[in-house]
Design goal:
About 40% of the residues lie in helices and about 15% in strands. By secondary structure, it is an alpha/beta fold. It has two domains: about 5-45 and about 295-385, Aspartate Aminotransferase, domain 1, CATH 3.90.1150; about 50-290, Aspartate Aminotransferase, domain 2. The strands form three sheets. A seven-stranded mixed beta sheet has the order 2-8-7-6-5-3-4, with helices on both faces. Helix 5 packs across helix 6 (about 130-140) and helix 5 packs across helix 10 (about 260-275). The longest helix has 18 residues, at about 295-315. The radius of gyration is 21 Å and the shape is globular. It starts with a helix and ends in a 9-residue tail after the last helix. The model has no long low-confidence stretch (mean pLDDT about 95). The chain binds pyridoxal-5'-phosphate (PLP).
């Protein structure tokens, strides 16, 4: 018999994955062009040229020993470059020793939570949130405490305060946010720091940042390092360089973190003992050569605009995302998210009900899909709106 908690976890499965499989089934039945699958956030743009140039260069001019074991925290040269970048963005001097290279953000979060949590410790998350946090926290014996946000998805400091207990060890923030695309402003970060520092024990902020480079309309993401002291950043190039399958990211502990010395050492040890040992050598070297590169963010912005117009013009409501790769549209009044998703599926339009992000009354659509799919979906949104008796705001 396998572990009891794994039996229930396997039975629960993932709603997003199930939706992905349903998309493939419908595509086989009706053809690729007639299915509008917005269920999965798999970045579909190719990595920028800097990445392929770096790979070629590394293959043509291999460094002796490059593929051998290394320090568990990664190459000193890669970590120093990241520290330098973060220092100049935030004005807070970061050393290479603050950085540990990881196998993407998922491993980064696991390394951090493994380092922080004693059994039963509580981790605050702001709903709606990326549901894998539940697994990451449970992996290390912690307990997720869900803090609600407002209709604009912005967190409220008094509400956060009301969820803090003696067992609160950490809080996860994710801005730009999956699934809403909202960016938390500087005032919120400052207020959060004051609130957490007013408590009589250390509460760490884990800033999960896979989307900080994907922002639109000229918006800026305030550098958390400037505003939060007991901070640990978890970053990943899965989205900003479209390297989701390659698994490369890092953790960075703020030099102002009260547990800096022991925490940086614990994260490196966790990286080793949890099994990844170190991040892939070749990708660390690629990152050195493409640290300032990004995917074509304007392309994502354009797709967001088309999808958002389809939703609004058909007669639905939604907050317009300022970043990330998702629109968290409102489910029409008088029906559940699952009922709405079922009506959408009849038009071969797939989205993920809000239950998967712990804030119901909404459904998530990922716009990292082809422009053809987004443009083609307009008629489906209009047909769904008609079936539900909504008035269109524009012509088809
Ligand atoms: C909010 C959030 N955090 C973490 C991750 C995991 O990122 P990675 O691919 O780097 O493990 C994702 C992936 O979609 C995400 O959306």
């Amino acid at each position: 018999m396998i572990a009891k908690n794994m039996i229930s976890a396997v039975e629960g499965g993932s709603a997003i994955r199930k939706m992905f499989e349903e998309g493939n089934r419908l595509k086989a039945l009706y053809g690729e062009d007639n299915v509008f699958d917005f269920s999965l956030g798999n970045p579909d743009l190719e990595p920028p040229k800097e990445v392929s140039d770096a790979l070629k260069e590394l293959a043509d001019d291999p460094k002796p020993g490059m593929h051998g074991y290394m320090s568990n925290s990664g190459f000193e040269s890669t970590r120093a470059m990241i520290a330098e970048k973060r220092s100049s963005e935030s004005g807070v001097k970061v050393e290479a020793g603050a950085v540990c290279m990881t196998v993407g953000a998922a491993a980064a979060m696991n390394d951090v939570l493994h380092s922080l949590l004693d059994p039963g410790d509580e981790v605050l998350v702001l709903a709606p949130y990326f549901m894998e946090y539940n697994n990451y926290v449970a992996n290390h014996g912690g307990k997720v405490v869900i803090v609600p946000t407002g209709d604009d998805f912005m967190p409220d400091l008094n509400t956060i305060d009301s969820y803090i207990t003696d067992r609160t060890k950490a809080m996860i923030i994710n801005s730009p946010n999956n699934p809403t695309g909202v960016i938390y402003p500087e005032e919120f970060l400052k207020g959060l720091n004051d609130l957490l520092k007013s408590k009589d024990h250390v509460i760490h902020v884990i800033s999960d940042e896979p989307y900080i480079d994907l922002v639109y309309d000229g918006c800026k993401v305030p550098p958390v390092l400037s505003f939060i002291d007991n901070l640990i950043i978890c970053f990943s190039w899965s989205k900003s360089l479209s390297l989701a399958g390659e698994r490369i990211g890092y953790t960075l502990v703020s030099p102002r973190n009260e547990d800096y010395d022991i925490l940086t050492a614990a994260i490196v040890l966790s990286n080793r003992t949890l099994g990844s040992v170190n991040a892939p050598a070749i990708w660390q070297k690629v990152i050195e050569k493409s640290l300032y590169a990004k995917v074509d963010v304007k392309n994502y912005e354009h797709r967001r605009d088309i999808l958002y117009s389809n939703i609004i013009d058909a007669g639905f409501d939604s907050v317009k995302p300022s970043g990330a790769l998702y629109i968290y549209m409102n489910t029409p009044k008088g029906m559940t998210d699952a009922e709405f998703a079922a009506v959408c599926a009849k038009q071969n339009l797939l989205l993920v009900p809000g239950k998967s992000f712990a804030k119901e009354g909404y459904c998530r659509l990922a716009f990292c899909v082809s422009e053809k799919t987004i443009t083609g979906s307009r008629k489906a949104f209009f047909a769904i709106a008609e079936e539900l008796g909504l008035s269109h705001r524009a012509e088809l």
